[in-house]
Amino acid sequence: MNEIGILPAFNGIMCHDHWKPYYRYKCTHSLCNAHHLRELERAWEQDNQAWAKEMKTFLLDSEKAVKNADGDLPLHEAEQRHQQYRQVLDKAEIECPPPDESQRKGKRGRLKRSKSRNLLERLRNFEQDVLRFVDVKIVPFTNNQGESDLRMTKVQQKISGCFRSMEGAKIFCRVRSYLSTCRKQGLTATRALTLLFQGKNPEFMEPDKFEPD
Q: Where is pLDDT greater, at 201 or 126?
């Protein structure tokens, strides 16, 4: 992650799945709620944690509210969302308490937690990162877009095993980057490639379409 030279210099908002090494970087963090939804589903279905079902409903409802507000939720509504979030976690503390310290029996360190308890503590300790999408307009609910952009690279790696040269890898990434950007601008891959072979730029790439700094 350091060698590629991006994250050490990154000072924006990084949306990720809470892999601990990401927190070594001093940027602002946002946690992917698609991952939380899957973990909450597991806690509800396998551990019968009612609070997990309520939290899943809350997160999905919050995503819908933010989308309906075009990403710009009013401040008072964002604060209410934080309060509701804490209320669900307060219920969770009763339903899924921490290990009983009286059962330590000389053991050192942190007593083992259940998966549901670990999830609860993570949600409580990283509230700001979980709800960053509520507070900041540009922050997505999940990092699915990033994973989608990288998926074809992993598919190619799975099929071919590796890239045969650095030049080939760069070409592959450039082509995928072009197609992904066009798709986000509402241009189909067929149209994007047609323009490419005609030696033309998509309209959104024309110089007069860029706003001045």
A: 126
